Amino acid sequence: MGTLADKIESDATAKLTLPEDRQPADELARFKAFLKLENSRLQMLHKSGASGIEVCRARATLLDVLLRHILEPIQAKLQAEKAPLPNFALVAIGGYGRGELNPFSDIDIMFLHDTELTPGGKAKPQIGALTDGLLYTLWDLGMKVGHSVRTVEDCVKVANSDMQSKTSLIEARLVTGNSDLFERMRSVVIARCVRGYEDAYIQARVADQASRRAKFGNSPFMQEPNIKNGCGGLRDYQNLLWMAFFKYRTRTLEELAEKEARLRSRKLWPVRAPGAGA
Which domains does the chain have, with CATH numbers? Predict the structure, then answer.
C-alpha cells in the first residue's frame, strides 16, 4: 500500500494532466474539483484521529503536488513557443517550507532564478510567464499567496536586512525546479547570512520572545493562553529550533539530541556550573 503522498500524486496525475492545448487558467473547474476532493480526504484523516502535524504535512504535500501540476503545462507552452526556459527553482518558505501547512494558512513561495535582470532591474519575461501563470491560477482558486522573485544575491541581501526573512530562508524547501540552484542558495545563505551572525541572531530571537510574551501573556498558567504566541506556545518552541540551528546547525530536536550526544562524548557540550538552575 502506498503512502498518502503517493496517493495524492497518483490522483493528481490522473486528474490534473491537461490536454496539450490547455493551460491551468482554462481548467479552473478541474483544479477546484481536485482540491475539494483532497481537502475532504484530509478532513477525514483529521477526524480519524491523525495528529495535527500529520494533517499539516499532508496539506503541504497536497500543495506541492498542485503547484507542480500547474507549472508543468506552463513550462511546456514556453518550450512549444521556443522560448528559452529560465533556470529557476520554486521554493516553499515559512510554515509551508517546514511542511507545516495549517488550514487557511498563507502559502509563502519564492521563485529563485539566476537569469540576468533587465536594465530596469526586473526579471526576464520568461520568469514573468512562469510566475504569472502560477500566481493567477492560485488566486483564481481562492488561495492566499505570499510570493517573491529573487536571485541568490537577492536572498543574501534580504536575509541580512531582516531577521524574519533570514528565518524563512533557513527553512526553505524545494518544491520543483533546479535542485542545484536551490542548494547553492542554501549554501550561500549559510555562508554569508548565518556564519558569523550567530550571536546577533540569538539575541534578536530572545528579544522577540520577550516582546511576544509581554503582549500575549508572560505565564504558562493563563486560563486563556495564546497557544501560538504566548509563553510556552508554538512560537517559543520554534524559536528554540531556530536558535539551535544557528548555534549547532541542527533542524530538529532529534538532530539536536544527536549533536549533544556526540559533543558530550568528546566533552565539548556546555556543562552547567554547580548550583545553576535547571
Answer: 4-194 (3.30.460.10), 198-265 (no CATH)
